[in-house]
Write a structure and sequence with these properties.
- The structure holds 2 protein chains of 2 kinds.
- By secondary structure, chain A is an alpha+beta fold.
- Chain A has 17 helices and 10 strands.
- In chain A, β6 and β7 form a beta hairpin.
- By secondary structure, chain B is an alpha/beta fold.
- Chain B has a single domain, classed as NADH:ubiquinone oxidoreductase Nqo5 subunit (Beta Polymerase, domain 2, 2-Layer Sandwich).
- A 5-stranded mixed beta sheet of chain B has the order 1-2-5-4-3.
- The radius of gyration of chain B is 16 Å and the shape is globular.
- The chains are: A alpha+beta, B alpha/beta.
- Chains A and B meet through α1, α8, β8, β9 and β10 of A and β3 and α3 of B.
């Protein structure tokens, strides 16, 4: 596809353009080296690593419980998904059963996370393509969800609310009423976004037929989540390998077959609606009373009351917070469906109190690999749509 | 969990039946199956697991390296395979000596391995023989050392 234009200096050469790492549409510090023929992208090469903070290395020097705080910072738009995946991996390694009540609360909050994350994606993707108003609305609703997280865990973003064996705290009284208020209003808000975008001619023009990824390419490139389901592959970790009692919930997996940006938009919007359904069911299922973490002396810290009144409680408290606990030697891989796709944690123990190795298989990292396939041969303006539609979080790409 | 367990073992049995040489060891832990494969048979075994219709491990989730320093063989390269249709997972493990940290690439079998192998080269210094572009991916190009090796200090050298 090289240019045949003749100039005084000879045939025209393709131009190499750096997009990013400082560019608003790259959603962080992504750099894409574009080789251009006029406005047509001949080659796109993502360059990453600008946000690499060595989280996996840091985990190796912390105890199993201390490392939870680091997981928040991987995908900062879905901290609870990361908490969940890490805790599930540690629980699998230890062989720990989490009480049902904690499992339902985990499901409820991770689905709220999915909604919040998709709202950020929707707003930023729309603003990248020139639809400014959606951003203002979607961030308004996201803030309401953030307020729930703050009310429950004390933090808007870096929640660290899920702990190995259950939750950090008993949720505060009346939290379900707040969830209900937000979730009852949400379907109407999703209708509003759809009014603004779904039949919008400009939106359709910018996304339909743009960034096409075939089903075969999806599998070959390891893309997961909405990238996969937008290309007609009906796969969701919540259904294929149910964790945290997802098998008790009734929900659908939205699938589109076109494989373009518009299909992935439809999948994500439909996922918001499915998450609303799951949150509603979880609200019904969560018992008002009951344990919020497992009974496992030596692994789960005793309650404050117990620590102050019983000698065993005091010993366990002291041991857990000074040296941690040691799972048996072994390796596990735990995958969950994060808002972006398959989030996996590979955890290896050598029998000591610190993880021997923690690897985060992050969906953003793998999904970004298909970016060249999405945008090569298309216009430079479509690159912006293609980056938006992969829904990357650079903290998660670089870890 | 039982039926899935049997299915996974069926995959191991199939692999054994196809070529007994490719399975050195089978490990079971917490319901996960790991097949230890000799380095020289990795590409063949990977290709068989992907293309055999009754197995269908078409999706490579992840490649992760474990550094067992100071033990030898020092490195373990773990391949996390997924069969989306059959809803099964399988882990392949290749043991590599620290003095000869070279593994054949699987980019020809699963193109997604490209970045995973670059990451492991970057972090552990393992060379993936036949990789189309084996350069650093997360660390700067001029970086010295391989940060996730166990003999690399957490705070770095400086």
């Amino acid at each position: 596809m090289s240019s045949t234009i003749q100039t005084a200096a000879g045939p025209a050469q393709p131009m190499v353009l750096n997009m990013g790492p400082q560019h608003p549409s790259t959603h962080g510090v992504l750099r894409v080296i574009l080789e251009l023929d006029g406005e047509i992208v001949l080659k796109a090469q993502p360059v990453i690593g600008y946000l690499h903070t060595g989280i996996e290395k840091s985990c190796e020097s912390k105890t199993y419980s201390q490392a939870i705080t680091l997981t928040d910072r991987i995908d900062y738009l879905a901290p609870l998904s990361n908490n969940l995946c890490y805790c599930l991996a540690a629980e699998k390694l230890i062989g720990l059963e989490v009480p049902k009540r904690a499992q339902y609360i985990r499901v409820l909050l991770t689905e709220l996370t999915r909604i919040a994350s998709h709202l950020v994606w929707l707003g930023t993707h729309a603003i990248d393509l020139g639809a400014m108003s959606v951003f203002l609305y979607s961030f308004r609703e996201r803030e309401e969800i953030m307020k729930i997280f703050e009310y429950v865990s004390g933090q808007r973003m870096m929640t660290s609310y899920f702990r190995i064996g259950g939750l950090a705290l008993e949720p505060p009284p009346g939290w379900l009423d707040r969830v209900r208020r937000v979730i009852d209003a949400m379907p109407g808000h999703v209708d509003e976004y759809e009014d603004l975008l779904t039949k919008n001619r400009i939106w359709m023009g910018r996304t339909q037929g743009v960034g096409i990824l075939s089903a075969a390419d999806v599998i070959a490139m390891g893309a997961s989540g909405p990238m996969m389901r937008g290309s007609g592959i009906n796969y969701d970790t919540r259904k294929a390998f149910p964790y945290s009692s997802y098998d008790e919930f009734d929900f659908n997996i939205p699938v589109q077959t076109a494989g373009d940006c518009y299909a992935r938009y439809q999948v994500r919007v439909a996922e918001i609606r499915e998450s609303i359904k799951i949150v509603r069911q979880a609200m019904e299922k969560v018992p008002p009373q009951g344990p919020f973490r497992a009974e496992a002396p030596g692994i789960i810290p005793p309650s404050r009351e117990e620590m102050k009144t019983s000698i065993e409680g005091l010993i366990y408290h002291f041991k857990i917070f000074t040296e941690g606990f040691a799972p048996p030697p072994g390796e596990v891989y735990q995958a969950i469906e994060s808002p972006r796709g398959e989030l996996g944690v590979f955890m290896a123990s050598d029998g000591s109190a610190k993880p021997y190795r923690v690897k985060f298989r992050t969906p953003s990292f793998v999904n970004l690999q298909s970016l060249p396939k999405l945008c090569e041969g298309r216009l430079i303006a479509d690159v912006v749509a293609c980056i938006g539609t992969t829904d990357i979080v650079l903290g998660e790409v670089d870890r | 969990m039982e039926p899935q367990e049997n299915n996974k073992n069926a995959a191991v049995a199939k692999l054994r039946e196809w070529d007994a040489q490719v399975v050195t060891e089978v490990l079971e832990f917490r319901g996960e199956t790991t097949v230890v494969v000799p380095k020289q048979h990795l590409q063949r075994a990977a290709d068989y697991l992907r293309s055999e219709p009754s197995l269908g491990f078409s999706f490579l989730s992840d490649i992760t390296v474990l550094d067992r320093f100071p033990l030898e063989p020092r490195f373990e390269v773990n391949y996390h395979l997924l069969s989306p249709e059959r809803k099964q997972r399988l882990r392949l493990k290749v043991r590599v000596a620290g003095t000869d940290a070279v593994v054949p690439t699987v980019t020809g079998i699963w193109p997604t391995a490209n970045w995973h192998e670059r990451e492991n080269f970057d972090m552990f210094g393992i060379r993936f023989d036949g990789h189309p572009n084996l350069t650093r991916i997360l660390m700067p190009d001029e970086w010295e050392g391989y940060p996730l090796r166990k003999d690399y200090p957490v705070e770095g050298y400086r």
